[in-house]
Fold these 2 entries.
Entry 1:
Amino acid sequence: MAKVVIIGAGFAGHTAALYLGDGLGKDHEVTMISMSDRFLYVPSLVWVGIGRMDVEKTRFPLKDVYDKMHVRFVHGKATEVHPDDRYVIADKRDGSDEQVRVDYDYLIIATGPMLNFDGTEGLGPHLGNTHSICTPQHATHSRDGLMEEVARMKKGEKRKIVIGTGHPGATCQGAAFEYITNTHKELLRQGVRDKAELTWLSNEQDIGDFGVRGVQAKYKGKIISSAEFIGAIFKEYDIKWQVRSGVKKVDEKRIYWENYEGEFGEMEYDFAMLIPQFLGMPMKYIGKDGEDVSSKVVAPNGLVKVDAMYGQPYEVTSRNPNSWPEIYQNPTYDNIFAAGIAFAPPGPISVPHMTPNGTKMAAAPPRTGMVSGIIGRIVAKNIIDLVTHGRMTHSERMTEMAAACIASMGDSLWDGSAATIMIYPVVPDFRRYPNEFGRDTFVTHMEMGLGGAWMKRMIHMTFMHKLQGRVGWKVIPE
Ligand SMILES: Cc1cc2nc3c(=O)[nH]c(=O)nc-3n(C[C@H](O)[C@H](O)[C@H](O)COP(=O)(O)OP(=O)(O)OC[C@H]3O[C@@H](n4cnc5c(N)ncnc54)[C@H](O)[C@@H]3O)c2cc1C
């Protein structure tokens, strides 16, 4: 009987658990170790953060789903991985304070990001300065902060709101973009938009870069760029923007940044939501003699090393699709896989920049929910292959994956709207698409309208259905 262990029940790990439970659960032992006993539909935290969705609508209990799918559930935080002896140690979080040892033949690390607020002095809700929408607690705190601003604006005060990224190497610009457009809509709804100065502040090379080197698509017969597309939205919504700026420090009144030219400056704010740098979730990796084997499993940023070509310059990784991993398998321990944000990409997708002061400024590659789910499925199917016939048959690089990003602008299905951006492939592949963008300009698409608002709501509902393993879950794509 094979033992498969997954750490982390997010988009990647939970998707893997569903496929593994379905494929192996009855005859083998599939175990999920997760810090939270509920699945969290992270994208809808944007709506929680503006007060338009109750946080409970973004979660469901995992245990019932796993019982149905033949997956054993350990509610706990994995703290140690022993790759030579093939077991994981977890601190239980079910109120018992126990430690458990869980043995494995195959391990999937799908722990998502560690939100590195400490990477930027003064950043983060725990210090009372800036907000975040990356966890339920952060999103509700952000909502409360925003509503305080609304109350002040209703009394006639003018307020400065800054939204974007809080580190020169931050990712997840899409989530921040969705938050600024939703904030705009919410302020309009509350009748105070004229009292707010809204500013987009980010480390992107240009607006609409989103950490994927921007998007170019055919629109009404001509090529338009995401910079033009997002620029038009910002102009229409009266949102100012400053890009090419990495946040270095924050205090209770100001955000201190450095730009591409190496100049330093500051921006005043009353309310700010800035996404922190993402690192790998810290865990100990311990060898058979008790030695630290972390360097064999994880990169210095804590993300798990997989079958990517690391250490190559951007000129190589951006031109060679084979730089990107296809099976997400650790090169030292071939029974360890990583999925979702937890895997270490070979480098940025967007063009990186070094300021004259030596600050590395590069939007890190987003591994969105869709990408994370696809990787979770591939890894799970390969493990099923290995257990059942000893040979992996599934692979997909990010140079072969499509991604859809729907950034809602208000939650209303009547007067809401959304910017829908479809990109293929996520990482440009200049060999298959020898145009200047490395992408299929027919499939890659940008559209703005009410249809996207309906789609965004439908995606929330169909994913909550799929991820609960309900009837037909397998035919709903990641
Ligand atoms: C506000 C916001 C909006 C977004 N909107 C979109 C969107 O519209 N579309 C889209 O495609 N993507 C969106 N994203 C990105 C998407 O949410 C992420 O890509 C996705 O959540 C990554 O999935 P993951 O499984 O890798 O990590 P996560 O979803 O973060 O899951 C990791 C899981 O591992 C658990 N874990 C961590 N460490 C341990 C440990 N030591 N032991 C046990 N468990 C552990 C965590 O508790 C968590 O449950 C958004 C992100 C944010 C923050």
Entry 2:
Amino acid sequence: MSENGLGEDKESGKRALVAGGGGFIGHHMIKYLKKRGYWVRGVDIKEPQYEATSADDFKVLDLRRWENCLEATEDVAEVYQLAADMGGIGYITGNHADVARNNILINAHMLDAAHLNGASRYFYSSSACIYPLYRQNTPDIGGLREEDAYPADPEEGYGWEKLYAEKLCQYYDEEGKLPTRVARFHNIYGPLGTYDGGREKAPAAISRKIALVDDGGEIEVWGDGLQTRSFTYVDDCVEGIYRIMYSDHSSPLNLGTDVLIGINDLVDLVAKVAGKQIQKRNDLSKPQGVRGRNSDNTRLREVLGWEPQTSLEDGLTATYGWISAQLANKPSEVAASK
Ligand SMILES: NC(=O)c1ccc[n+]([C@@H]2O[C@H](COP(=O)([O-])OP(=O)(O)OC[C@H]3O[C@@H](n4cnc5c(N)ncnc54)[C@H](O)[C@@H]3O)[C@@H](O)[C@H]2O)c1
């Protein structure tokens, strides 16, 4: 075994598909699997935006379409399904029909295509957005345990679709069609993630705003900033995905940290990392999502003997460093005040 407990580092000969390989987590997943010696195919509706892919084979395909899912899953043993129409809270609350329709097409077709093409394992990326809204209406919320998902009352659109796709995975697994593994991600952030354009998440949006404002300046913060979340660094996310794929646990598992922080405090932490004094202008007209959301990692620790390791300050240092370097190359194209 290697020192991280994941077995030999080189698993050469294994063939994997990363669907959504042109996106943030998928791009990092391809790099992770390549380091482990895999042959990797990446598929996405677009090429990666910020860095060339390291996949052996990269196909641009629309995975809403059945025949494209069959082509994508041909001749691979492991399928990592990370393709989704998604974005930050503004995007997913403003586009319920598109998000729900696109994602149910992708997930139903991908699962069945992987089964028909004889894949041996299938990973599905669910979300903390499946948890009931009635459990998330205070900022000082305790962690959400996996069984808290029911009775269901998930986020409209995106959350309902994720919850149903979890169920589809469960049925394929139970009926012996295809072993499936499911993780519920809690706010993944890191370098090479979207930081502008409307689909970016809070850590990236805050990093962009702070990078573009002068020391002592003001930035807009969505909501009163007292809403809370926990955040997970992308390196921990891809390692967690791999560990879950190789566990014998087929029910959904939280993949996140259980360190809760308010959004105003997150702004202060990014400002500290950036070495700037920042004033906050809280905008109550902007969407802020649930009041509080945190991961309970009890089961993750029981199943894997592992949980995400990277501190928020270390992760934000890497993320802010990458976003500010990107912006230094194109300062006029992005507005600081969005
Ligand atoms: N980033 C997070 O905090 C987070 C949290 C919870 C769940 N997730 C889930 O993790 C997965 C990866 O998320 P991400 O953060 O990398 O997002 P992302 O938007 O960067 O990646 C998703 C990729 O899917 C691709 N895609 C969308 N429609 C497609 C289509 N029709 N055909 C082919 N590809 C298509 C997009 O082009 C994109 O590259 C998604 O399933 C997402 O719902 C992410």
